[in-house]
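To make the argument concrete, we let one protein speak, a sequence paired with a row of structure tokens, as a model reads it:
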Amino acid sequence: MNEWDVQAGADGEGLVFVSDAEGNPDIRLRSFLLNKTFSLTSNSFPDYSPSWLNGQNRLAFVSERDGNPEIYTLDFMPDLPLGEIPASEGDMEDAVSRETGDGFGARFDSAPGKIRQLHFYIADEPACFEWRVMTIGAGDKPDSIAASGDTTPTVTGWHVVDIAPIAAPHPFAVCIIFRNDRQPFIGLAERSLSGAYYSLSSGSWYSSIASYYMIRAVVEPESPARITDNGAPDLFPDWSPDGSTIAFASSRSGTMDVWLMDFDGMNPRKITDGTGLNTKPVWSPDGTLIAFVSNRSGNNDIYTIKPDGTGLSQVTNDSADDTDPVWAPDGEILLFSSNRSGDHEIYGQRIVSGAVQRLTWRSGGATEPEVTTDVFLRNSGLGSAEGGLLQNGAEEYMTHDADVSSTLAISLSSTKAMPGDSVEMTLEISDAQNLGNLAFEIAYDPTVLQITSNPQVVINGSTIGAIYPDIYPDDFGIVQFNCVHPEGYNSGGVLLRLSVKIKPSVQDARTILALENKSAYAVDLTPLHTQSQDGVITFYLFTGTGWVTY
């Protein structure tokens, strides 16, 4: 499985990316709000190059579904699921049935889309029953029937009902109405995911308490809108900050150039002059410049240009391949990928001074940087410093939030180690104010490091902490941590301790323990902003006469 073309939501609510997990490149959403991944597109032709319009949850992307690379748009909701949506989770704990005419139901909330399948877990006595998709009305109970039909399972287990796709009401209920007394029996699961379950008796719906019916709904995403229709390829769309304009690359004039068009595909206009190949346009945060890749000087470098086609300026000037530009949130730095040191790695260059900083040192290289207001992503989602440049193992922040409420920092018992050594890591929080919930991930390279023993969760007062994975040694690459403080945490201190071992086969010059996917909320669920400092370990190399630093 391969994943690429990562785009992040500006507020850290998730990532959109391209995946061939189902055999064909499609666009998927990783929702940090739901902690789930689901497909936004699904067809037999490639979909790629997503661009997320910040604040409006609208996507522009390239699809070949009509035979030629064209640009499409699609609205989506990162806080509501798509795909297979379960009403409950866990093993079956019990089974229930009812008399003829009575029934059960579960509530579902989904993003806009079409319901195309229903799943019911038949625990015993398989028999004909009526299925219904219903709207939710007064009293938060099933109201009118949106679709219905009969189905006859013949075996126990999950019974799949294919239905003619219908627009998913928001919210909706999936129900079973019994055609036979006490047949079939429907499974009850350990835990609730739905939030509402129903029982039908004598023609009236009632709330059902602690009955977690094993029912699922499959909701496919809405069809996207095609906004270009040209015989030449249209590629690399990127939204302007206000959502009124899309920059893209196209050879519709005979050469590959940067073009602009209105949000609906109207009023296309070329802004580069036809010299060389001009691709991968990206808008600056204030909308005054567009960075792009061009080989007009003989090799790929990064350039900027104004939206009216004036003010062409060369940003990078190196004999290597400089590509994948992306702006830092303050508009003062361009991040890009370059092979100027061998493999492609991520670099940052300040627009005014021209100062260049290498940001990644990874075995196999790193490409496609992406930035949100508080997360810097690399290599399809693995994180580096939170919005910061790494400099001598520390951070130089690109941006500073005025409302930063706390700092997360990784401390290491040693920042220099030999292959085979173990290093103790401590994670501390400072300046917490009324912190009610904190969740984050520590990402590390599993080809370089291994967590050798169970992390020690250090909690204060009434804080409740949880960590995943829960079995060690582990080299999964991610440690997930979540803590809840019902009364509000207003202090600082150690949250977590763990031991990491440097694998004997390590080849990297250095590696990063990166804090990413942070979410922090006050007791009243108001979002809190945090800044963080990652941990960097530099390795020694045995030369035959002794250990020296790379």
